[in-house]
Every structure is written in structure tokens, then in C-alpha cells.
Amino acid sequence: MQKMPELETKRLIIRPFKTEDLEAAHRLFDVELREADFGSDKMETLEERADWLQWAARNDTQLAKLYQPPYGDRAIILKSNKELIGACGFVPCLNAFEQIPSFAPEGHSRSPGCNTPEFGLFYAISPSYQGQGYATEAAQALVDYAFQQLHLKRIIAETNYDNLASINVMKKLGMRIETNPGSAPAWLQVVGVLENRTRDTGRPASEQIV
Predict the structure, then answer these.
(1) H-assigned helices in the chain
(2) Containing domain of residue 97, as a range?
(3) How far is the C-alpha of 89 from the C-alpha of 122, rounded, in Å?
(4) Which residues have a Cβ under 8 Å from the Cβ of 38 and sit 6 or more positions away?
């Protein structure tokens, strides 16, 4: 599997993180997005963020050497001023997805307690740049790459019930929004699902949204 290239949209460049992104990454993750739920422990110091950044910078190359999917964080760079304004990427998701109605095997009832893997999408934008369509623009570039280059069958995104901004991005991507009909597990709430239709139409997902 080859390394994932830089992706370019009308306003953005999506690239691997670099070690020289330290100050900007610390500001983005540990100050501006400190209250965001990234599913991991918070980093308290610049040194902790530096350790993470070294791992993130190597991750892209090491996964390619193992012929694995390009999981991990990527920097969202605004073309107009070269500023780091967010992060996005692919993540392996392990959850009780068969509790979601459309994920249950045909002819079987939903299976609480059984976890299954899915290919996930994530995105986060600095509060200073939210509400301007940047998250959708970056996420759409990732979806197109996943479907056209990785030939992925489907991609998902997860969020909480009250994260309306993230749900709105899912809808703009054309995702089907589903919710966990039960109360457990607490971390399985809203799931956006997007099937790969490029195999049938020959067109990227971004051109199929009506």
C-alpha cells in the first residue's frame, strides 16, 4: 500500500503532521480544542504534545511500510495563510455496531456486547474557523480518497447526541444518520454511514450528493 498523498481542495491542503507543527498543534489541540472529545487522554504539556507529534509524523510512513490503511491524524492547512486550522483523518473504530439497526446481520437480532470493526472518519476545526464549511470540505476530500483509491466499501463517523455541528457535517457528506436504540454502551450514540457508490456510477462521492 502506498503512502497517502497530500490532498488539495479549493481552500485547503490536507497533509501529514510535521515536527515543525509543534507550536501550532499545541495551540490547536491543547488550547483551542481542549474541551473536544477525541477519545483519548488530554495532554497537559508541550513536551507531551511533542512526543505525540513525533509519532504522528512517523505514522504515515510506518503504516505504508506495513501495507496498512493510512490511519491517523492529518493537518488541515488553510491555503490563504498557511495556518494549521484543524485535523482530520481515518481511524479504526471498534464498537457494538450491530446494535445499530442497519448493521445487524440479516435475519439476526441486534447483538449487544459484540464489537465489530469499521473504517472511521474524523474531523476537528479550530473554533476560530468553525461554521465556514472547512470540516465538510476536508472530510469530503478524505471520503473521495477512501472510495476512489482505497476502494473502501463504506466509511462511518461517530459522535454524541448533542454534537449537532458534527452531525451536520455528516449530513452534508450524504451520510445516513443512525442512533443507538439502547442506552449502552454509553460511547455508542450517533453513527453516520456512507456507502461507496462510485463502483456503480464511476463518479466521486462529492459529485453524487444532490
Answers:
(1) 22-25, 46-65, 134-148, 164-172, 198-201
(2) 7-207
(3) 6
(4) 29, 124
**pLDDT on residue 210:** 33
Residue 1 lies in a domain: no
CB atoms within 10 A of CB 170: 25
Separation between Cα atoms, residue 36 and residue 30, nearest integer Å: 10
Domain-located, residue 2:
no
**Domain of 33: which CATH number?**
3.40.630.30
Total count of domains within the chain: 1
Looking at residue 43, what is its pLDDT?
84
Q: List all residues 6 or more positions away from 1 whose beta carbon is below 8 Å from its beta carbon.
A: 63, 64, 67, 68, 69, 70
pLDDT digits (tens, 9 = 90+) for 117-134: 999 999 999 999 999 999
Whether the predicted pLDDT of 23 surpasses 80: yes
Judge whether 89 lies within some domain.
yes
Q: What is the pTM of this model?
A: 0.89
Asked if 54 contacts 19 with a C-beta cutoff of 8 angstroms, the reply is: yes
Express each pLDDT in 149-172 by its tens digit. 999 999 999 999 999 999 999 999
Nearest to 61 by CA among 95, 17, 116, 27: 17
Cα 71 from Cα 82, distance rounded (Å): 24
